Amino acid sequence: MDESGMRYGHYRKILFCTDFSENADFAFDFAVDAALRNKGSTLFILHVIPEPDAQFWKGYIYEVGDIDAQARADIDQAIDTGYRPRVPESVTLQIVMRIGDAARMILDFAEQQEVDLIILGRQGHGAITQWLLGNVACKVSRQSLCPVLVVPLAFKARMPVAASPV
User: What 3-state DSSP class applies to 92?
Assistant: First the structure.
């Protein structure tokens, strides 16, 4: 325990970051588990639209109307179908969207909100790609001021298969 009496691992604010990939979908179960184990915590779901994608959307996909509202509606739809049904009623949930560099937006949000744990999936990019461009999980884990749980999709193969009803 630290001097405040709070044990390490007591997470009040848990940040789950998603790009709506298969890996993020798998990592979400870890985020829900963390929220359930930490009664009274808040689970944030953060999706960052990369700036080039945001510019593409603004220029080509949504030529009329409120672009940000349409993007938000699309993201809300993905969250409503993929994540919200998997969150128990006892978990406080907040949805957040940002536009920009994913790693920077995640780190900024975590610092502003004083997040206690960040959970995200790790994509299977090769070593050369990581060396040239870096990746979000790597950047976040290196620069975060709080613990980061990076969930590789390969771990899914080690998970026990649920028994089918007899």
Answer: strand
Q: What is the pTM assigned to this prediction?
A: 0.80
Q: Which domains does the chain have, with CATH numbers?
A: 13-155 (3.40.50.620)
Distance from CA of residue 136 to its chain's centroid? 11
φ/ψ of 159, rounded to 5, equals -75, 140
| Rounded Cα distance, 163 and 29, in Å | 18
Strand order from edge to edge, sheet including 117-122? 92-99, 42-49, 13-18, 117-122, 148-152
Encode pLDDT of 101-151 as tens digits: 999 999 999 999 999 999 999 875 555 545 444 588 989 999 999 999 999
Helices (H), the chain: 22-37, 51-56, 67-82, 102-113, 127-133, 136-143
Other residues' Cβ atoms within 10 Å of the Cβ of residue 27: 25
Each residue's pLDDT tens digit, 4-36: 555 566 899 999 999 999 999 999 999 999 999
First to last CA, the chain: 45
Q: What is the DSSP string of 26-60?
A: HHHHHHHHHHHHSTT-EEEEEEEE-HHHHHHIIII
